[in-house]
Specification:
By secondary structure, the chain is mostly helical. The chain has a domain at 2-106 and 168-201. 84% of the residues lie in helices and 0% in strands. α1 packs antiparallel against α2 (34-60), α1 (2-28) packs parallel to α3 (68-106) and α2 packs antiparallel against α3. The two termini are 55 Å apart.
Length: 222
Amino acid sequence: MYSRYIKTLSDYQLQESYAMRGMERVRIGFGIDTVFVQAQTMTLREIAVSFTREMDEISRVGVKAPPHSTVERFEREVLAKVSSMRRYAASRHGWLERLQTVNQQVANLPASVQIPLRGTLDSARAGYLVGIAGLGDSVVNAIPDSTKDAIFALLQDNEEQTLAWSRFNSELAAMYSEDLIQFFQSQSMEEMSLKSKIPMAFYFLTLVLMLSTFFFIFRSKQ
């Protein structure tokens, strides 16, 4: 029985790694697939909610289950991660569309301005916190005001999205799932140990009965 829960939690860890790889593509705008994000996050949510429901059920029937607080933390962390991932995906999609518009404007600037500015925008696209102040006054002053305002807004939103990324790019849910796996592994070992002792107990009981029988037979013949 416990092996089934170990498999469920291992499946969660695998699905989470798939989801995070998908979110990396979302962040840089490589093959954005909102359907994929929705499907992956829904899978994570369903695993967590179903697992909690099963733990409540086995507790009610008297089967030893992990502490409710651990199960609750796991579900809460997964649901928070899923919610943050969905919001980020929608926000990043809009940000990348605005980046494309800004890149078209930057393409009309002189190479001496365009090249360093594209480097900054590419870093922002990769999810790094960047600003245009480091480009120097000569580059910044050469950018038209309308384009400059769009770039400032873009980089400010990128900063907010970088913080949003950190909210779900954590190992907490995986850590809680690992704690639960260790609990079930421990219980599974105890269960196996108990099962191995039962045949041994029957063996010794049978041996004692046989010896007792032989003893009484021997005594009766004297």
